[in-house]
Fold this sequence. Notes:
This protein is mainly β. The chain is built from 2 helices and 16 strands.
Amino acid sequence: xxxxxxxxxxxxxxxxxxxxxxxxxxxxxxxxxxxxxxxxxxxxxxxxxxxxxxxxxxxxxxxxxxxxxxxxxxxxxxxxxxxxxxxxxxxxxxxxxxxxxxxxxxxxxxxxxxxxxxxxxxxxxxxxxxxxxxxxxxxxxxxxxxxxxxxxxxxxxxxxxxxxxxxxxxxxxxxxxxxxxxxxxxxxxxxxxxxxxxxxxxxxxxxxxxxxxxxxxxxxxxxxxxxxxxxxxxxxxxxxxxxxxxxxxxxxxxxxxxxxxxxxxxxxxxxxxxxxxxxxxxxxxxxxxxxxxxxxxxxxxxxxxxxxxxxxxxxxxxxxxxxxxxxxxxxxxxxxxxxxx
Length: 341
């Protein structure tokens, strides 16, 4: 298993001497929301990047050269964009980033029935130098049913049968630069089996006099998936802030959004169930739906693992890389059944 989350969730193998050129620190914002132009900040100096080119290269030219647009479009993790990008690298001189990630889309009814369950995943390769652009990625693949997978057509199917993601022609380099990150393979899993969902949520509004008392509980249903940084958001369009009667974890009322956000650090076999109860002035039961859930997990549904990266023409030579591997929620929601209203 991977320790840590996010950018800490990295692994590197053997040593590779980076280019001696001074290069900007490379960071990637995983948020899909468009961000403001980095040049509009108070410093106006492209976030304090160190330029490695000639001294007359202005910040604006550098931003253009990097292919950063004024407003980033919604990020499609599998999109290949055409840009020419000067040399960049990750913080500690590693020139290769491998991203093996999945997103989860779940829609459930209030009765626990699964209306939609879809996992989408992929392995993406970002080369920051031509020196590391002729490589193969060794995995524990290929994936078997029920996963449906597709491979980038220029890769070698015979190599993939042995778990290697590599070009048919080892002398042909992969594209260089973050704008040209290449998706090597994608996969998908769809199902309506309730035990695949990481945890179930039971949200039960009841009327007591002039109040609505809402009991919410979660219960782990798939012990393979350890969920971290869980937030369960319950709509609460009441005239008054909810009174929390009891909570496992913590709950905050976001008054502007009229949402009660229930935060649980981790849902795992050690913390497999929990409950929240709150009370508001009387409302329709349907007002407390849809319940929205977000979390991250270091565990992929596919169990796909990147074991090492090697030179394409000499698989005995390992190439140092950073690995990011994470499951995130695309959408995870519990919707009210009209028939129950």
